[in-house]
# Entry
Amino acid sequence: MFAVEMNNVNLYIGDKRILKDITVKIPYNSVFVVMGSSGSGKTTLLKLINRLVDFIDGVRVLGDIRVLGFNLLDHDPYELRKNIGMVFQEPNPFPHLTIYENVAIAARINGVAKKREELEEVVKWALEKAMLWDEVKNRLQDYPHQLSGGQRQRLCLARALAMKPKLLLLDEPTANIDPVNARKLEEAIVSLKDEVTIVMVTHLPHQAARVADYVAVLFEGKVVEHGSAQKVFLHPSTEIAKKLLRGEI
Amino acid sequence: MYSWRRLREKIFIYIISIVSLLALLPIAHLIITVFLNGFNVLLEAGAGFLFKNPPVPLSREIGGIGPSLTGSFLLTVISLPVTVILGLFAAILTTEFPRNPFSLLVDTIAKSLASIPTIAVSMVVFTLVVLPMKRFSALAGATALVIVALPYTYSYFSTMLLSIPSTYREAGFSLAMSRWGVVARILIPIAKRNLMVGVLMTLARIMGETAALLFTCGRLRTGLPSSLMGPVDAIPLLIFDYILSPFEIWRRVAWGAALILLLVYMLIFFAVKFFVKEVRL
Amino acid sequence: MMLSRRDKLFLISLLPFSLSVLAVLVILLFTVVANSLDALKVFCIQLLTSSVWDPENKVYGVLAPIIGSLTTSLIAVLTALVLSILLAILIAEYLRGFSREILSSIVEFTGGLPTIIFAIWASQYLVPFLRDAVMMPLHSYLSFISIFSCRPVTGFSVFSAGIALGISIVPYVTSIILEAYQSIPVAYREACYGMGATKYESIRILLSLARPAVVAALILGFARSLGETTIVVATIGNSMNLTPCIFAPGYTVSALIASQFGNAYLYPYAESVLYFSMLIVAVISLVLSLYASSVIIKWRSRIVV
# Structure
């Protein structure tokens, strides 16, 4: 059984075909990295998994997709999203909530914790996993705008984790933060592998090499390379994949 | 050649400054005269102006605008929440489902309503509500006010919701929030200052509207209103009737009432400025 | 968009409140049209060719009010034309920081001011001022021109109403012009300065670029003036007399309705005639507003770089 299984999936926005005949299998408890140049459809693929693509005007999805055992297109997306957490490319903690509340809200609305003590425990756990606890434990009532970019992104990770999701989607999570914080974030991600299945989009080959168990390479909406990290990095079969992994496109 | 262009620049600046000053003169004069005339009346009438009945045409005593003030208050209390809720729901519809045919319909209509003369609204409410009920009523007046204020409230809330970065919505959905959840827990709280501004702007519009009330709420100036199904008066209506009347004492009451209206409007205006300054995103 | 079941329920939950807006418009239009039919059937063209208000004898002609509405609105737009453009330019190009804030606030303040306060000031101060400072001189020297040919006694006239209306729509028109002017992409302004134009020259170029929007703003101002009631009733003099002279008292449709509708149900056809006049004004106003709005939208998409 796979966490995510796609067979010949095509996604259209209007008349344009964005994802072409996608076939991937993402095993449970792995770090699955999706790579590709900009415009290749990586973010769309990610947002397909938790059906955030629903909100795009003119979107059509054809094909067979199973996520966490459910048929993605038939199942109620709001139910399914309870098991899927997401961290976006641009950190987006809620500006009107404190650091504590940002993490707590995720736990509360998903029924992970209800009482004060339970919530406080979950918030602490999530912030520790996101490697942010030490930096904010004395300022939980501060607001996100008082944090640095890297801290905000880790806050978003904590928020996603507080849902206790089975699947974690990360859209170029280190794209807008400094290298030190980026490393911290990568460490946090790898340490989570045992508890969640991680699907991460990145355009940095070195980052992929550091964290991935499995890799899929996307080019213009098609999967051009797919397999274990070792196989893809050491023995890429297509020219495009080779160029991408060398950082040439 | 060269200095002619420079000269033209200077001349233009002078012209534009003078003309703009000219444009500001009327409003300055207006405020000053309303204050002067109004204060004169209020000083003479005292605090009783706020709750006494208006004077009989040929009396010496100024009396007050009590019934009209109460009427305005009643009308506002009914129409403000209704307008805000209708406007907000319509704005939520059009921003959450941007290309939906319902949304396009609601958007076009809400904006078209703004170009309907307000007196037409008064006529229609008279024919459809006042005539069948056989009396003027606060209900009819409030209905007319809601119709008149709604387009502006809707426009404002629509702009407000559209200005919230979509990433916060997405974050909410990624946390498995429901549609109403995202609206209530994220969009509204983020926009709460603008929401307040929208409410205040609606308030200003409602309490200053005259034409919509001409044939709807009646003109009860001889005592306090007893029910929503009965006639009430409103401050703008009082001013309208009295300023055009031949009676000196009534014209003075109109100035006093105008000052009160202006003061309330200024209060709302500055409150809005205060709230807008505070917004940080 | 892909709508799941829950999305559809959300949509449905919003519909009742939102569609009430549709119901309101439909009811308004239907009522106005339905109530105009009687007058149309009985009087028809007669209504538009004479100027008479005699409910007791069932003689009606609303030419004067309709012409009055159009004339006052025209005067209003001409008054607001220069003021609004210059104010918009001043705010957009010449002022910064505090002074800009202040001026914008003053314009906003005037725009939201209850029209009744404006009406009261106009009737007590503006009208006498216009009579003495503008109308009397114009009449004394230029009375051979037909529009100045009558002697202004009280000052209450089509002219005064037009000027008062004009002053009152300045904030509205200014804000539309300002918004349009500020939405011109910076690239065009840079192009102007890049070719060595002075500030004044650049403004002229940018203004001509914005011309469709400015015209649309004026049309919107015209449409808004058509519907205005309180200011007009207070300054126009309320007379059914039809004359080319703008210094004479006159009527607009909304002023006529304001003074006559309250008692109209007592006489047969009176209500219907008033509804009919309102229908004409409302249709003109609506058509102009929609046209002007679409012009602005098209213009906006054309100037995007």
Q: What stands out?
A: Chain B has one domain: 66-278. The radius of gyration of chain B is 23 Å. Chain B touches chain A at residues 98-99, 165, 167-168, 170-171, 173-178, 181, 185-186, 189-190, 192, 280-281 (CB under 8 Å).
